[in-house]
């Protein structure tokens, strides 16, 4: 059974920070490209941050570059999204996804509908 479980979302003030976690089970991160996506109310889902299976390549949406960082801990089989300098427009449900075929660029900027594994999401609200 392939599974991803997100955690770490919550309410934070503008300018604050959160770290999201994505725990993988049933497969190893070493063989899957990983990505974080988000969907705000009334808006389309968008790629936020993606990482290659090797961990050697990353890709970020322009809106979060220099503020968000994707990383992983192979020993814990967990991917993280460190979010700093949060803005109200970052408010969304954040999802973790995994795929063995998709390149890092395709994962973040292509059609994400058919990625192999998805988590259920964790909600992030940035509000003062």
Coarse morphology: globular
Query: For the report, how would you describe the main beta sheet?
Result: 7 strands, mixed
Number of discrete helical segments = 1
Strand content: over 45%
Output the structural class: mainly beta
- Rg calculated over all Cα atoms: 13 Å
How many angstroms does the end-to-end distance come to?
40 Å
What is the share of helical residues?
under 10%
Number of strands: 11
The ordered H/E elements are: EEEEEEEEEHEE
On the 0 to 100 scale, the average pLDDT is 96
Low-confidence stretches: none
What would you say this structure looks like, in words?
- This protein has 128 residues and is mostly beta strands.
- The chain is built from 1 helix and 11 strands.
- Strands 2, 4, 5, 6, 9, 10 and 11 form a 7-stranded mixed sheet that branches.
- It is globular, with a radius of gyration of 13 Å.
- The termini are far apart.
Tags for this model:
128 residues; mainly beta; 7-stranded mixed beta sheet; 46% strand
Quick gist of this model?
The chain is mainly β. The protein has one helix spanning 104-109; strands at residues 3-7, 10-12, 18-25, 33-39, 46-51, 58-60, 68-73, 78-83, 92-99, 117-118, 122-126.
């Amino acid at each position: 059974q392939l599974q991803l479980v997100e955690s770490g979302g919550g309410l934070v003030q503008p300018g604050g920070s959160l770290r999201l976690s994505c725990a993988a089970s049933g497969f190893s991160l070493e063989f899957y490209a990983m990505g974080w996506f988000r969907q705000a109310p009334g808006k389309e889902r968008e790629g936020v941050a993606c990482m290659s299976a090797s961990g050697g390549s990353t890709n970020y949406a322009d809106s979060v570059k220099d503020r968000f960082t994707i990383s992983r801990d192979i020993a814990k089989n967990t991917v993280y999204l460190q979010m700093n300098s949060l803005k109200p427009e970052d408010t969304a449900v954040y999802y973790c996804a995994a795929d063995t075929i998709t390149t890092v660029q395709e994962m973040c900027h292509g059609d994400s509908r058919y990625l192999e594994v998805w988590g259920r999401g964790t909600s992030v609200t940035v509000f003062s």
